[in-house]
Amino acid sequence: MTDATSIMDREYEAQFGDYFALLKPRVMTLVVFTAFVGMLVAPVSLHPFVGFCAILFIAVGGGASGALNMWWDADIDAVMRRTAKRPVPSGRVGGDEALGIGLALSGFSVVMLGLSTNWAAAALLAFTIFFYAVVYSMWLKRSTPQNIVIGGAAGAFPPMIGWVAATGSVSLESILMFALIFLWTPPHFWALALFMRSDYDDAGVPMLTVTHGRPSTRRHILAYTVILAAFAIWLGFTSAGGPVYLIAAIGLNAWFVKGAWEIFRRNEEIAETDNYSVEKRFFKFSLLYLFLHFGALLADAVLRTAGVIG
């Protein structure tokens, strides 16, 4: 009869799912979708196989960033409730393994994107990985309450990379798609921080709620949301936008600004009484916000291809 204790003492052998989780698949979904839309709305058509390769290697690069981030942040991830079960802090994947996988996938994705599309897109992907792993994870995240503001650029590059993969250059449309994600990131994460502040306190991460308090965070959420709405609607008047996007952007941003205003008007006593229901609702909607905007861009691109709109 096998000794149960000896089985428990054996070293855990990582499974495929553990390594896949290392790549932050939920984040990768947004990376893939926004990069795909950025490539599709570009005025240059790619061969379907080339387009598939571009999206694949952008996704791999996004996964590489996630692995490097998990390697570096293992210590604080272990302290925070929402990240403690990640592969590295939970011990399912070793830190050295995460680093090796991240570096290998980084090099592979950049080289293959350059070979399959162009080196401008590859260089932008390389910079994105570097920005997320080094500038954000290693520097900004633990040193300044502007970590999310500046660090948000890392998640904003995919649609620009998709556009550059198709066209070989940056344009106003790609910059506005970048701005859409860049300006969305702070209110999205600050809303989360309002009702998850203890996590950041425990981990010593200088989130705005920790360094400046919740009232200041509420003001910042409103300010960024208003600016975000302006840029989101501006995108609708470019060649990348169209009637579907413009209508969607006006409606979505009206709701988003309304939610930010409600958050701004609340005090901590009220928020604690209803368990931060307004903040949680705003955060949940923010998860859909980008998908709906880029989905509307995709719809307009399909309608243009079909000749329904000009």
Your description of this structure?
The structure is a single chain. The protein has 310 residues and is an all-alpha fold. The protein folds into 2 domains: 14-168, Tetracycline Repressor, domain 2 (Orthogonal Bundle); 171-310. 77% of the residues lie in helices and 0% in strands. The chain is built from 17 helices and no strands. The protein has helices spanning 4-9, 16-21, 25-40, 48-72, 74-77, 95-116, 119-143, 147-151, 153-156, 158-167, 172-195, 197-203, 208-211, 214-235, 243-265, 268-273, 277-305. The longest helix is centred in the C-terminal third of the chain and has 29 residues, at 277-305. The chain is flat and about 55 Å long. It starts with a helix and ends in a 5-residue tail after the last helix. Residues 1-10 have low confidence and may be disordered.
Rg over alpha carbons:
21 Å
Kindly report how far apart the N and C termini lie: 74 Å
Main β-sheet, in a few words? none
Q: Look at the structure and name the CATH superfamily of the largest domain.
A: UbiA prenyltransferase
The figure for the number of domains is: 2
For the residues shown, what is the average pLDDT?
A: 89
CATH architecture of the largest domain: Orthogonal Bundle
Q: Report the CATH C-level class of the largest domain.
A: Mainly Alpha
Protein structure class: mainly alpha
Total strand count, please? Answer: 0
Approximate helicity band: over 70%
Count of individual helical segments: 17
Catalytic activity: heme b + (2E,6E)-farnesyl diphosphate + H2O = Fe(II)-heme o + diphosphate
EC number: 2.5.1.141
Keywords: Cell membrane, Heme biosynthesis, Membrane, Transferase, Transmembrane, Transmembrane helix
Pathway: Porphyrin-containing compound metabolism; heme O biosynthesis; heme O from protoheme: step 1/1
